[in-house]
Structure to design on (297 residues):
């Protein structure tokens, strides 16, 4: 076990405003170089759900998941790739952008991380660290969207999971949370105009929720120029749940409600279904998408 440890070392009414991106610094640059290996291979349980909501004519969200377990002789650590993209741009550009971005990240990670891992059973000294590989995949996705989908863009929140370790890459205002023993913690930071104003103390959270520019993003996949990608290293505790969701979910129901559903649902799939149902019951003003990854206890 622990053979991958070296890898850790090295909307239609949405808008994109990239001018503010220079004000932000990358999150997660302090990733540790050699986290302790896991004691044993873990088992992932996954739930997914995506719904058009109550207002939209079509769904611009894209959810792409890939997970693998190899047990028996020369068993490999559990591998999972979970990608959520929420497109924007109108005239179907949003759904094209989100699909292209998700497929590009999946292709890059599978080719550069998973296939060598499957063949060799672990990294060699030349292997790109996981955080770097995931950032490069997101950057490639952004270039593909910029050149192939004029006027389109997308959020992108990805989790690359080995056993109980998750590397996350994030751009936009979709979110990642970790839930464990009654506590819900938001991992990612929204790259929105109003979130920046709240951070600077110029708006309260209540004012931001009703602000006319609350859907304006200063950072999105598909923007021109260099893209900053936030990265995070997380440990998913035994019995804990990792949630990726779009703003069509978290903007409709409170974090308290999200935590209650994650705590009471018997399985990741029933939790996803309940979250989507709750967002629809609250109005469903946008597409609603969620993926939940649970570690065995």
């Amino acid at each position: 076990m622990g053979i991958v440890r070296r890898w850790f070392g090295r909307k239609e009414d949405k808008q994109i405003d990239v001018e503010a991106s220079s004000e932000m610094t990358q999150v997660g640059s302090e990733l540790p170089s050699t986290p302790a290996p896991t004691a044993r291979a873990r088992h992932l349980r996954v739930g997914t759900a995506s719904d058009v909501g109550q207002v939209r004519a079509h769904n611009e969200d894209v959810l792409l998941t890939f997970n693998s377990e190899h047990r028996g002789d020369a068993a490999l650590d559990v591998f999972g790739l979970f990608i959520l993209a929420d497109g924007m741009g109108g005239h179907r550009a949003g759904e094209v952008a989100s699909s292209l971005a998700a497929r590009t990240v999946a292709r890059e990670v599978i080719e550069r991380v998973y296939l060598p891992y499957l063949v060799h059973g672990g990294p060699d000294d030349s292997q790109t660290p996981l955080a770097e590989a995931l950032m490069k995949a997101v950057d490639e996705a952004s270039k593909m969207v910029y050149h192939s989908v004029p006027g389109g863009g997308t959020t992108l929140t990805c989790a690359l999971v080995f056993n109980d370790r998750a590397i996350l890459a994030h751009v936009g205002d979709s979110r990642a949370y970790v839930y464990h023993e009654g506590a819900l913690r938001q991992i990612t930071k929204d790259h929105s105009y109003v979130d920046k104003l709240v951070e600077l103390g110029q708006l309260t959270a209540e004012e931001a929720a009703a602000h006319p520019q609350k859907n304006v993003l200063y950072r999105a996949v598909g923007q021109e120029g260099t893209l900053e990608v936030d990265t995070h290293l997380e440990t998913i505790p035994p019995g804990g749940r990792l949630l990726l969701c779009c703003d069509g979910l978290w903007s409709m129901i409170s974090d308290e409600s999200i935590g209650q559903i994650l705590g009471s649902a018997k399985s990741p799939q029933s939790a996803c279904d309940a979250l989507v149902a709750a967002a629809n019951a609250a109005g469903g003003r946008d597409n609603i998408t969620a993926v939940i990854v649970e570690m065995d206890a």
In short: Helices lie at 93-120, 130-148, 193-199, 205-209, 247-250, 255-264, 268-281.
